Amino acid sequence: MISLASIGSGSAGNAILIRANGTCILVDNGFTLRETRRRLATLSVDAEEIDAIVVTHEHGDHLSGVGPFARKYKTPVWMTHGTWRACRDKKLPDIHLFHAHQGFTIGDVSLEPFPMPHDAAESCQFVFRAGKHRVATLTDLGCTTRYMEEHLHGLDGLLIECNYDADMLRNGPYGEYLQARIRGSWGHLDNVQAAAFARKVDGPGLQKILLGHLSEKNNTPDAVTRTFNEHAPELAGKTAILAQDFASDWFCFD
Ligand SMILES: [Zn+2]
Ligand SMILES: [Zn+2]
């Protein structure tokens, strides 16, 4: 069995937990130490139980809470060489660098990173595998590719980004430049792109599709639900939207 929980998901901060047997991995942390501990408690996890922190990229909503947590609990941190180069916080107690195409193992979990088209130094997302069960994260990317489709075939669980609603972005508070950056191939996925990709990797084994990283300014859970109902109605029973302000439940795949 492999389990996934969101500590919080959205443009204001991201962190995910992956658990299999005795291993517990924190993926990113964009929350303060106090907030992280508070949310971990709602998932019945002690900070000391976390075996490693894996970082997807250097943006603040993923990295800001990594250093404080790692220093406090002496947690090993894993990231790509490029992310490390771009990471301003170099005072991490135990750093492990990897290549975005090279798999590695932490305890009972195998991690298969794959690179992302995103405006970061060397960002990646992961397939996490324990036994025959696989779950993947796919956030912070401007477009999806055929490689991702093939790589994410036959998953048990998927967490995918629904960053923005195209109309809300166009009519929202962001200026031209920032809008273009978000919309571009190195930016973020909108709700329609996420729905289209989720349909492509859907299969009989895919139990749950978690919709996350919603922009506070350019998206709402209602807009996500509307888009999925329209573009991927067959997935309605499988999806759940992750919140920014509180942790999710545990999602277990077995
Ligand atoms: Zn992000
Ligand atoms: Zn990012």
Describe it for me?
With 254 residues, this protein is α/β, with parallel strands linked by helices. The chain has 2 domains: 1-111, 4-Layer Sandwich (Metallo-beta-lactamase, Chain A), CATH 3.60.15; 141-242, 4-Layer Sandwich (Metallo-beta-lactamase, Chain A), CATH 3.60.15.10. It is 28% helix and 27% strand. It has 9 helices and 14 strands. The protein has helices spanning 33-42, 60-63, 66-73, 81-86, 146-151, 166-171, 176-183, 191-201, 221-231; strands at residues 2-8, 15-20, 23-27, 52-54, 77-80, 95-98, 104-106, 109-115, 124-130, 133-138, 157-161, 208-212, 239-241, 251-253. A 7-stranded mixed beta sheet has the order 6-5-4-3-2-1-14. A 7-stranded mixed beta sheet has the order 7-8-9-10-11-12-13, covered by helices on one side. Helix 8 crosses helix 9 (221-231). The longest helix is centred in the last third of the chain and has 11 residues, at 191-201. The radius of gyration is 17 Å and the shape is globular. It starts with a strand and ends with a strand. One zinc ion (ZN) binds next to helix 2.
